[in-house]
Design a protein that fits this description.
Blueprint (H helix, E strand, L loop, with lengths): L13 H11 L9 H13 L3 E5 L2 H11 L7 E4 L6 H8 L3 E4 L11 H13 L1 H5 L13 E5 L10 H11 L2 E5 L7 E2 L2 E2 L6 E5 L12 E5 L2 H11 L23 H12 L1 H18 L5 E2 L7 E3 L5 E5 L5 H10 L15 H7 L7 H9 E4 L7 H15 L1
Parallel strand pairs: 2-3, 2-4, 4-5, 5-8
Antiparallel strand pairs: 1-9, 6-7, 6-11, 8-9, 10-12, 12-13
Bound molecules: pyridoxal-5'-phosphate.
Length: 390
């Protein structure tokens, strides 16, 4: 192996190490002062009334599904060009994802199709059928919510989606797991719907090792989600009183302490990532790959991954193998959700159902990316890619 470029790396300094060690020398490893302080730091950064810290982005999305009142059989409009978790949380409640395809430009959910799907489902009958999965849908199932996501750190086109939600009385759960700090027309990602979720796995813009946070300005939903993450204990319940069916989705104190330092550094972390993205932009300029289109409405991109699209006819998976052989890792990103085995089995999806998602899934290539990557490393990746693409 010639090179050793890591696929991603967290940006951890002495400050983070000290914060975590400080917690370890107390007796409060969970449910201490750190998680609330972390939540307050997020509330301030995002400019939101409530932040609810949880132990993963997936847990946060699941809480939103519960808060939105989604019940077995209900329909939720979302996109198959996403990370699996955004659809899985719908299935956790035995509800049904209604997929609409992605916008080929950004990879984000196509708002025109969202509007059409909502209108047709509302009308019912034959019009609705075009959008619904072939099987696994109950007669008279109700459309309850829209779950868009801010892909690769770029916010979805949310204004038209909000119009649809208002027209049909739907909740919006914004999966901002990839987009903390991004802005859409000057507004913060995560606040563009009723509830937003950020995730903090180590490859993310900021990390808590594992973890996530829900943000919302809805007081009632926030207090329900606080109860649900803590075994269903409502405010005032004792340790063995559980007003609701809940979960243990709590974030522990070590994660929260780490997260507090990272939020304080977040703008710096985002600027670093922006710089690395610019290195790529420069060094990939002459290569036969498409880079991410950052649209005008994205007033701040929060670079999460660096995904390029190879040309039609390039064997992307062979390319990944060849890059790996010289120590430059790369990954497909994403694999279409509707083609995962259990999705096919449960809902009868077929190849060809969502052509844009499938095309992006076939041609997408995530390159090594992090805020601590050097320009030299970007040059190595670009040169290796260039050589292999001829
Ligand atoms: C779009 C999207 N949604 C949800 C998640 C789930 O977050 P977590 O891995 O923290 O559960 C991720 C994480 O990568 C994601 O990218």
């Amino acid at each position: 192996m010639k090179f050793r470029v890591p696929m991603s790396s967290p940006d951890i300094t002495e400050k983070e190490r000290e914060a975590v060690l400080r917690v370890l020398s107390t007796r409060h490893l969970s449910m201490g002062p750190e998680y609330r302080a972390f939540e307050q730091a997020i509330e301030e950064y995002v400019g939101v009334k409530h932040a609810i810290a949880v132990n993963s982005g997936t847990a946060g999305l699941h809480l939103c599904i519960r808060a939105a009142g989604i019940e077995p059989g209900d329909l939720v409009i979302t996109t198959p060009f996403s990370f699996m978790a955004s659809s899985n949380v719908i299935l956790f409640e035995q509800a049904v994802p209604v997929f609409v395809d992605a916008d080929p430009m950004t990879g984000n959910i196509d708002p025109v199709q969202v509007a059409q799907a909502a209108a047709d489902i509302n009308e019912g009958g034959e019009a609705a059928k075009k959008w619904l999965p072939r099987k696994g849908v109950q007669a008279g199932a109700k459309l309850k919510a829209i779950l868009p996501l801010d892909i690769f750190g770029q916010p979805a086109d949310m204004d038209p989606i909000r119009e649809v939600a208002e027209q049909y009385g739907l909740k919006i759960i914004e999966d901002s797991c990839e987009a903390i700090g991004a802005t859409y027309k000057g507004r913060k990602a995560g606040l563009l719907g009723d509830y937003g979720v950020f995730a903090f796995y180590p490859n993310k813009q900021m990390t808590t090792a594992e973890g996530g946070v829900v943000v919302t300005n809805d007081d009632e939903a926030a207090s329900l989600m606080r109860a649900l993450r803590n075994q269903g204990r409502a405010e005032g319940d004792t340790w063995l009183e559980h007003s609701y069916l809940g979960y243990n989705y709590r974030m522990h104190e070590l994660s929260a302490a780490l997260g507090r330092v990272q939020v304080a550094r977040l703008d710096e972390l985002l600027d670093q990532r922006e710089k690395v993205a610019q290195y790529y932009e420069k060094h990939l300029a002459k290569l036969p790959v498409e880079t991410i289109n950052v649209v005008e409405d994205t007033t701040r991109m929060s670079w999460f991954v660096y995904v390029v699209r190879v040309e039609n006819g390039v064997d992307r998976d062979k390319l990944i193998r060849k890059m790996g052989e010289v120590g430059v890792p790369a990954r497909p990103y994403f694999a279409p959700i509707h083609l995962q085995a259990f999705m096919v089995e449960r809902f009868g999806f077929e190849l060809g159902d969502y052509p844009v998602t499938e095309d992006l899934g076939r041609r997408g290539l995530a390159l090594p990316f992090s805020g601590v990557m050097t320009e030299e490393q970007v040059i190595i990746v670009s040169e290796v890619l260039g050589e292999l693409l001829g």
